[in-house]
Design brief:
Layout (H helix, E strand, L loop, with lengths): L27 H14 L16 H20 L4 H8 L2 H10 L5 H12 L7 H20 L3
Helix pairs in contact: 1-6, 2-6, 4-5
Length: 148
């Protein structure tokens, strides 16, 4: 995992190759999630404004995580609805793109969600559970790295 120190104005692209939701590795919910959180906590990649205040606030990122948790709860209650509802889950791509256009999240967070959402498949419902667990770990580490 490519680890970058947390610093204002980090514009390096995030390393996503360690995220494979189809198979859980020993590092996925630990060092991979921590590395992503640390990188995004200091990232201003793709922002129009040069200031990073107001970007990647934990409350903004938490909104995306809360929606992922909501979908996870629905799928646990009604597993048969997964294939039908997955296209609606993938609308998170549009929502995170909109947040990026308003400079609420950086390009690296957009890329992280796109990478994860791109791995969700209709025939592999387990990947959604792994996605939710990865984002849970990410949010825990993010709160430690981003003091807002």
């Amino acid at each position: 995992m490519n680890r970058h120190p947390v610093n204002e104005g980090n514009t390096d692209p995030i390393e996503l190759s360690g995220i494979d939701l189809s198979k859980v590795s020993m590092e996925l919910f630990d060092s991979v999630a921590d590395g992503c959180a640390k990188h995004i906590a200091g990232s201003t990649r793709g922002l129009r404004k040069k200031t990073s205040s107001g970007v990647n606030k934990s409350t903004q990122l938490r909104r995306f995580y809360d929606e992922i948790v909501m979908w996870d709860q629905r799928f646990r209650q009604h597993p048969e609805s997964y294939s039908e509802q997955l296209p609606l889950v993938k609308m998170l791509n549009a929502k995170v793109s909109y947040a990026h256009s308003r400079d609420l999240v950086c390009e690296n967070f957009v890329n992280l969600l796109r990478h994860c959402l791109g791995q969700l498949q209709i025939e592999q419902q387990e990947t959604f559970k792994n996605f939710r667990l990865f984002m849970e770990a990410f949010m825990g580490f993010y709160k430690m790295h981003k003091k807002d």
